[in-house]
């Protein structure tokens, strides 16, 4: 009875290990990475002001008012110019006050080593706490990319969602990534012929 229980335990362990090591048939993950990129802070000084739709409309309205007032008295023109100048100053202040934001770029490179054309891939980027070896975050993506047999493709997703709750959305800390390990798993593959593979 003792040996039977041990045999069952070994069989279960082998089954779990086998299930954990299942790879996507005919698809190899050759590389993966993630990065945090700051947006909305450094602009080309020669590019001119960045205006949204309402700002453009207000500027054009003021320009039309000045043109219309040129047919009338100069006092009205001066008033409109003062108002336009105040509007421009307010817009400049708002642009300076705009907080920088961060986006997160998740990448993986895959190679189709099978004999079917791939139509789309569902993939998860899993983050592991280096100290505790527990999963602390998971990003789930679907990339619709045609990948012919023997071809390699880099899948890139840019979103506002950080890898884990410990990564800041509004500040840059170069040591944030130091506590994380990560890996990519393929969850589903849809093929051009209408068939699919799903991770068990």
- Please give the count of helices: 3
Low-confidence stretches: 1-22, 44-49
Q: Identify the overall geometry.
A: elongated
Quick one: biggest sheet?
Answer: 4 strands, antiparallel
Order of helices and strands: HEHHEEEEEE
Strand order of the largest sheet: 4-3-6-7
**Could you tell me the number of beta strands?**
7
Arithmetic mean pLDDT: 75
Strand-pairing-aware structural class: alpha+beta
| Portion in beta strands | 25-35%
What is the rounded distance between the termini? 32 Å
User: What is the CATH class name of the largest domain?
Assistant: Mainly Beta
Fraction of residues in helix? 25-40%
Number of domains: 2
Provide the gyration radius in Å: 28 Å
Using the coordinates shown, work out and report the CATH topology of the largest domain.
Immunoglobulin-like
Question: Which architecture of the largest domain would the CATH scheme give at its second level?
Answer: Sandwich
The quaternary organization reads as: single chain
């Amino acid at each position: 009875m003792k040996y039977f229980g041990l045999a069952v335990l070994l069989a279960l362990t082998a089954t779990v290990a086998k299930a954990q090591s299942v790879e996507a048939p005919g698809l190899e993950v050759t590389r993966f990475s993630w990065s945090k990129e700051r947006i909305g802070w450094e602009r080309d000084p020669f590019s001119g002001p960045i205006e949204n739709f309402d700002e453009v409309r207000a500027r054009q309205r003021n320009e039309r008012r000045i043109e219309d007032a040129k047919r009338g008295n100069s006092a009205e023109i001066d008033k409109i110019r003062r108002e336009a100048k105040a509007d421009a100053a307010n817009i400049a202040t708002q642009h300076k006050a705009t907080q920088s934001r961060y986006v997160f770029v998740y990448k993986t490179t895959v190679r189709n080593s099978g004999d079917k054309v791939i139509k789309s891939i569902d993939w998860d980027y899993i983050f592991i706490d280096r100290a505790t070896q527990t999963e602390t975050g998971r990003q789930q993506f679907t990339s619709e990319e045609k990948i012919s047999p023997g071809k390699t493709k880099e899948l890139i997703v840019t979103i506002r969602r950080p890898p884990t709750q410990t990564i800041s959305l509004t500040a840059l800390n170069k040591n944030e990534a130091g506590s994380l390990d990560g890996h990519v798993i393929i969850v589903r593959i849809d093929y051009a012929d209408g068939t699919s593979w799903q991770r068990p």
